[in-house]
Here is the input.
Amino acid sequence: MKAIRTSLLLLPALLVATSPLLAQDRQPVSPHETVNATIGSNDISVAYGRPYSKDPKSGEKRKIWGTLVPYGKVWRMGADEATLLTTEEAIDLGGTAIPAGTYSLFLQPEEQGGAKLIVNKQTGQWGTKYDEKQDLARIELKKEAAPAPADQFTISIEKSGDDGGMLKMTWEDAQYSVAFRNK
Here is the structure.
């Protein structure tokens, strides 16, 4: 009887002790990908979740820009954990100096066309945990029609010349891009 009572007393303590571990073990809804590029001597990578246009629960097609990703609001730029940009060397991203390191990326699309790429110094957070005070930069992006409709959010790093490239984000019928170069 004493062993049962001791077990019953330990059970709540065990649940309290393990609950933070369970809360951190979020299962990603979308597949994850890391894109890499070597530009000159610099290694650049972006790690992100790749949501689909179709709702994962209902399977119905969603309107992305202006609805799922609202205009004028900061979006986590992917799914699940915050999207991470890592650059081994300093770069110039759209005219803004970005030191070597790892940063979270967010996007703020505008209804009238362009968008801002937000480079944030905070890393390791769930994608919806955005702290504006941690922003390193807000960089203007160019918007154009996607070469082909994209059912899944896609980020690419395309080499351009020996020392630079383009960072592109494509989803639905839109593509946002910004040029970068090694410093």
Summary: The mean pLDDT is 88. The radius of gyration is 20 Å. The longest helix spans residues 2-24. Residues 34-182 form one domain.
